[in-house]
Amino acid sequence: KLPMMKMLLRLIALLSAVLLASSAPPTCYSRVLALSKEITESFRDLQTSRDTDSCVETLPRLYLDIHNYCVLAKLRDFVAYPRCDRVLQVSALKEKARSLYTIMISYCRRDLVFLTDDCNALENPVLFPAAPS
């Protein structure tokens, strides 16, 4: 009976460790990375949507690479863009971009490492086709 109890306790400890490891809070870097991908995808969806306002075509490009120092200027320019505020999707996207900028310069500034400062790479990114789902 005692060996069975020890084995059961070990199993519970192992399962608890696995659950704790998979439920670890996101790091600053992982949060910034996920939010930048979400914003980039939302922008792409907005541009390809058929029922958006014509002003969406005039928005600055919004490809975000958080490893590129120029991303900070890109986010500032997008948030400050004066047109399209009447389009709800654009306003929501600007709020997300403002949040990302704030997170990057306030909460994560010591955690992020910029590998480049190639602003042109954010204007003309090399996009790879999406993986089939």
Summarize the structure in words.
The protein has a domain at 26-109. Helices cover 58% and strands 0% of the residues. The protein is an all-alpha fold and 133 residues long. The radius of gyration is 21 Å and the shape is elongated. It has helices spanning 2-22, 28-48, 71-80, 88-107, 119-123. It comes from Nothocercus julius. This is CYTL1 protein. Residues 1-23 form the signal peptide.
SSE succession: HHHHH
Give the helix/strand class: mainly alpha
- N-C termini distance: 49 Å
Average pLDDT:
82
Number of strands: 0
GO biological process, one term: positive regulation of transcription by RNA polymerase II
Protein name: CYTL1 protein
Keywords: Signal
Pfam families: CYTL1
List the helices and strands and how they pair.
Layout: H1 2-22, H2 28-48, H3 71-80, H4 88-107, H5 119-123
